[in-house]
Amino acid sequence: MALLDKKSKEALTDPLMANNPISLQVLGICSALAVTVQLNTAVVMTLAVVSVLSISNTVISILRTMIPGKVRIIVQLSVIASLVILTDQVLQAFMYDISKQLSVFVALIITNCIVMGRAEAFAMQNSPGKSFLDGLGNGLGYGGILISVAFFRELLGNGSIYGYQVIPNSLYEMGYQNMGLMVLSPGAFIILGLIVWLHRIASGIKED
Amino acid sequence: MHSNQYTLIFTSVLTIILASLLSVAAGSLNQIQKLNVEIDSKKNILSSLGFKESDDEKWTSNEILELFNSNIESYVLDKNGNQTEINIKSIDPEDDYDNMPIYINKTENGINGYAIPISGKGLWSTLYGYFAIEPDGMTAKGITFYAHKETPGLGGEVDKSWFQNNFVGKRFIDDKGNLVGIKVVKGKADVNSDYEVDGISGATITSKGLETFLVDDLRKYEPFFKKIRNANG
């Protein structure tokens, strides 16, 4: 990729797999459990987090030399909170049905550790361009896991993918049943645990 | 290290910028959001009265408004069941117990059904919906829920059609003319009973809550429906 230098590229691609915020750093678990019953909500939540994270990273990076060190956390928080409220308002205006399903979890992006974590750990030290890519990468890394969890939960719990029935009726007539556990939070824990496990085997990372 | 003065000025300026950004956004989107809420509640009133959209072809906002305006008349009842002149938009059914909104589906051949708002506690949250009644004033025509925070897959099944369809044709007035409500029983309802529907397995508290607030809300409208039943003989 000639378009980006090596460090920018790393900022974007690292969080997708090698340093994934959910499966490696175990951040942002709360919303990952809550909004993954269906793919639809998981995709919209991903879009919301990607936009909040990349914009907040960029804004904070632009302000990074101006932000007084003593109040930096509260400044980061105000920027993030404003962006989240803005996202929530936009969803309520233009995607009303989905905003109803996501309910309180859009507002809870404010407390998503990934957003604050990237602002403090990356945007405060790096240029706006790199910070934007880092935000984008982390948002997509988060979303990737969210969408994989939602895929299995919707498939096993409802027999559908993105709202389309994929398990044929004939199978239900033969006695197949949807797995009720999958629509409840414990189902998300199990799927997420398996994904984290597989990811760690694949990447060969060991906790000390 | 920045001085205290700089810190104060920086935070003030930032706060003002962010606050104005948010108020502009909230102000400009407010109309669209209100319209969304209104359309959603109209869609639910229509659906409780038996107007269903098909899965392949969702209604657009304009279609919903048009359908509502051409089929539904709404007005406010006082607590004795008499029609009042109060504008339905000016009352809040949650606070206002004396003024009760009612939505009537009128056709060329007369009245086709009544819809009333229902709300009450389930397990985790307050459920909001509409309950529709046949013109006889004693039979359920439909039920919908548009807002709740019950567990998906358990209490959350109240917004699924398998559950809602159970209510259609059930009665909430017994042979002596007393209000008895509709029982949400554990497991399968007695197929011969006109007064029970299947419960949701694993969601006993949501089911019982629904049963209780449904009969409470129907009791408020009882003076009105009693008149209708008397008029029908």
Describe this entry's structure for a reader:
- The complex is a heterodimer of chains A (about 210) and B (about 230).
- Chain A is mainly alpha-helical.
- Chain A has one domain.
- Helix content of chain A is about 65%, strand content about 0%.
- Chain A has a two-stranded antiparallel ribbon.
- In chain A, strand 1 and strand 2 form a beta hairpin.
- Chain A starts with 5 loop residues before the first helix and ends in a 5-residue tail after the last helix.
- Chain B has about 230 residues and is α+β, with helices and mostly antiparallel strands.
- Chain B has a domain at about 45-70 and about 105-230.
- Chain B is built from 4 helices and 7 strands.
- In chain B, strands 1-2-3-4-5 form a 5-stranded antiparallel β-sheet, with helices on both faces. Chain B has a two-stranded parallel sheet with strand order 6-7.
- In chain B, strand 4 and strand 5 form a beta hairpin.
- In chain B, helix 1 (about 5-50) crosses helix 2.
- Chain B is globular and about 85 Å long.
- The model of chain B has no long low-confidence stretch (mean pLDDT about 85).
- Chains A and B meet through helix 4 and helix 5 of A and helix 1 of B.
Give a brief outline of the structure.
By secondary structure, chain A is an all-alpha fold.
Give the key terms.
heterodimer; A: 208 residues; mainly alpha; 67% helix; 2% strand; B: 233 residues; alpha+beta; two-stranded parallel sheet
Distance between the termini of chain B: 86 Å
Shape of chain A: globular
Q: What is the number of strand segments of chain B?
A: 7
What oligomeric assembly is this protein in?
heterodimer
Class of secondary structure makeup of chain A: mainly alpha
**Cα-atom radius of gyration of chain B:** 22 Å
Structural class per helix/strand content of chain B?
A: alpha+beta
Tell me the strand order in the biggest sheet of chain B.
1-2-3-4-5
**Residue windows where pLDDT falls under 50 for at least 5 positions of chain B:** none
- Morphology call of chain B: globular
- Low-confidence blocks of residues of chain A: none
Mean pLDDT of chain A: 87
The share of residues in helices of chain B is 25-40%
| Proportion of strand residues of chain B | 15-25%
Count of all domains of chain A? 1
- How many helices of chain A does DSSP assign? 10
